[in-house]
Amino acid sequence: MSKSNSRQTFGSLNRRQFIYYSALAASSVALTGYAKPKIKSPNEKLDVGIIGCRGKGEVDSAGLSSENIVALCDVDAESLAAAAKKWPNAKQYRDYREMIEKEKGIDAVTVSIPDHQHAPAAMLAIHAGKHVYCQKPLTHTISEARALTLAARKYKVMTQMGNQGHSGDGIRKACEMIWSGAIGPVREAHCWTNRPIWPQGRTRPSGSDPVPENLDWNLWLGPAPERPFVQDWPEDREKAGGNQRRRRNGVYHPFNWRGWWDFGCGALGDMGCHVMDGANWALKLGAPNKVELVDSSPLNDDMAPSWSIIRSSFPARGDMFPACTLTWYDGGKLPERPKEMEREKFEQSGTIFIGDKGKMMISEYSDHPRLLPESSMADYKWPDQTIPRVPDNDPYKDFIRACKGGPAPCSNFDVAGPFTEMVLLGNLVLRLRKNIEWDSEKMRVTNCPEAEQLVHGKYRKGWKV
């Protein structure tokens, strides 16, 4: 069955499916503590508002295309116009605050905009009683992640973070392998990625350029401190000459915002919620008590570095889960090659688990679990499935199902919020340039009072969380 056909089938349930999902809904309330919000029946369509139409916004709107896309919002008129061609009946907005205020009938929103705007948009939607599908990382700061977790719980809306690997069969197999004792207790995990694939480690360019007519720069900045718009890096402009295609990603908009601390969360924020997901779930990590900056390229106050190595330490979590460390490598840095590894090169992103009885590897989206050496998988007997699977491994179906009375999505904010806190702690050591000791309950760095301003966000007038 094609993807489009499967979405159509999912949107129109037969009696057997209706009874099944109704039963799941009842069990989800009992098992997860979620009270049912006002929801539509499984045979109705959700009315969805799209916040951010470019890039992941295109992916998210396509993922929810079985429903009614009734509103579109983007600060870039060109992106908005392109989306309007696909959804001609949807109302158009430039400011998500206006959209959420006016579109009272919306059931759910997607949030697919730069990281610094995730929490303000998601929180507005939650307060308005809307279900929220928010891209990773869930938030720009640690306190925002905590606030969204608590708000989603209080307002009883359905939520999902867009780390799509969490909905897959692969990460579930990885967890079941480790929980069955395939490699024994795990004391080390090593996660790496080839990101950043955008500029990092630079300093802020001087001067300013005229803001393109299609872009509302003030709305793009949103809660971030004011700064002038700059179109191109001087060195890139010189290299590209008149070639606009080579210059299309800009200094900030539309793509290169990820490396800036005011707007993004660097390579760790971009890929950590994918790559570290398997270790977080399989090892039941929770919050670290210490995070160390092992090494990095030169650090500055404007941008994330071009590469870094960060190690987080976790206390014991029961007999099966002893104290362990998780080490993060980005910018092309890699862990030590295991002697059991048979392939010539590391994948562009992945994780190695080092257990007392063996080693195991998973891929970029915490999928494709295998023991090392990989040839040993030929006679490996997979453990019984103990984790419920998501229909078609599809995070959007998981979200839609929840909004229509099914179980809470697997990467709901009760899961994604604490995980995002753990991921973003790595950025604290980069910005503070020192190792930190973390008290998760009090949400406080105990050895560094100046960290307080980075744990909590600051917002320009007119913006809040």
Structure, described:
The chain is of the alpha/beta class. It folds into 3 domains: 3-166 and 391-416, Rossmann fold (3-Layer(aba) Sandwich), CATH 3.40.50; 169-197 and 264-387 and 419-455, Dihydrodipicolinate Reductase, domain 2; 217-259, no CATH class. Helix content is 32%, strand content 16%. It has helices at residues 3-11, 15-32, 56-63, 77-86, 96-102, 118-127, 142-155, 169-179, 217-221, 234-240, 266-275, 277-282, 395-403, 413-432, 452-455; strands spanning 47-51, 68-73, 91-93, 108-111, 131-134, 159-161, 186-193, 290-296, 308-314, 324-330, 349-355, 359-362, 370-372, 436-439, 444-445. The strands form 2 sheets. Strands 13-12-11-7-10-9-8-14-15 form a 9-stranded mixed beta sheet. Helix 7 (142-155) runs antiparallel to helix 14. The longest helix has 20 residues, at 413-432. Residues 1-36 have low confidence and may be disordered.
Stretches with pLDDT under 50, minimum 5 residues: 1-36
Number of domains: 3
Biggest β-sheet strands, sense, barrel: 9 strands, mixed
Q: CATH superfamily of the largest domain, please?
A: NAD(P)-binding Rossmann-like Domain
Fraction of residues in helices? Answer: 25-40%
How many strands appear in the DSSP assignment?
Answer: 15
Mean pLDDT level: 91
Give, in spatial order, the strands making up the sheet with the most strands: 13-12-11-7-10-9-8-14-15
Tally of separate helices = 15
